[in-house]
Amino acid sequence: MTSSTFVLLGILLSSFITGSVIFFLREDQHRLRTGLNLAGAVLKILFVVVLLRGVLAGQTFDLSFTMAPGVVVALGADANSVLFVSLSSVLWFFTTLYAVGYLEDSPRRSRFFGFFSLCVTSTVGIALAANLVTFLIFYELLTISTFPLVVHRGTRKALAAGRVYLAYTVGGGTLLLFAVAWLQSISGPITFTERGALGESVASHPTQLTLIFFV
Q1: Cβ contacts of residue 42 below 8 Å, gap of 6+?
Q2: What string of DSSP letters covers 122-147?
Q3: What pTM was computed for the model?
Q4: Fewer beta carbons within 10 angstroms: which end of the chain, N or C?
């Protein structure tokens, strides 16, 4: 495993592992849950600092593997992705501090913080996505992981909000999936590049790309 792969995996797994462990904690294990939350948040920030220094020094960060035939999950980092990853990581730390106090007497805190950590994992995955398929995967994971946060309290109002949330996100996600499939049928696998990845397709398929844009 290269150092760049280790850093990218560290940014993702620091919150994913934290959330996975927190799911299994009892409600009365308040100190352990808080400690894991803060440790995961600090560890992610440290990995992001290493990523930031490497990008500024011209180091290349990339990670990819084939999930299925024609489906490649790819992560990478540039100046723009580092900006959003840094913002997400710092906000995770401060929102964790706030949520620990705000939810002090609330039930099902282990479930909340577990999904909260998975939500952060999805967010940084979106920021680090190096191709369109990876972006779509983490986008849908974000939808799944945030729904339990919307309905966390289990009240009638929370459940009603959850139904509205699903209507918007699932509807939007379906259109996005359709647009991605259509786009890849035209241009093939889309890898994000600094100056755009659709240069040749714009000239040869202007009408279809316009329709995909509005979808």
Answers
A1: 93
A2: HHHHHHHB-BHHHHHHHHHHHHHHHH
A3: 0.85
A4: N
